[in-house]
Structures are given as structure tokens and as C-alpha cells.
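Worked problem 6 (solution included).
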Amino acid sequence: MKKIIQFGKESYAELRKVIWPSKEDVISSVKVVIISTIIVAAALGLVDLLLLLGIRAIF
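Solution. The predicted structure is:
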């Protein structure tokens, strides 16, 4: 039981050392992720469409 309590104390101490990002940093990062996801989805959709058209042309 002592080890569990010690682990909890050490974890809490480490979390106090963390430099948490600001709200603006988080929002900026989320925007980058959303835009990147949309771009990758569009590129994969285009590749899928081209492959589909190519397969239909062959068969």
C-alpha cells in the first residue's frame, strides 16, 4: 500500500512540473490537425476516384 501512495505522490509532483499549453496554443494545434485531415482525406478521395475510373476503363 505504501508503494501505491508513493506512486500517487510522485505522479502528482511530476504533473506540477508540466508546462501546460495555453488555450490559444491548443486551438491553433486543433486547427492544424483539422486542416491536415481534410487535405489528406481529399487527396485519398481523389486517388480512390482515379483508381475507380481506371479499373472501370479496363473492365
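Discussion: The helical segments are 2-17, 23-58.
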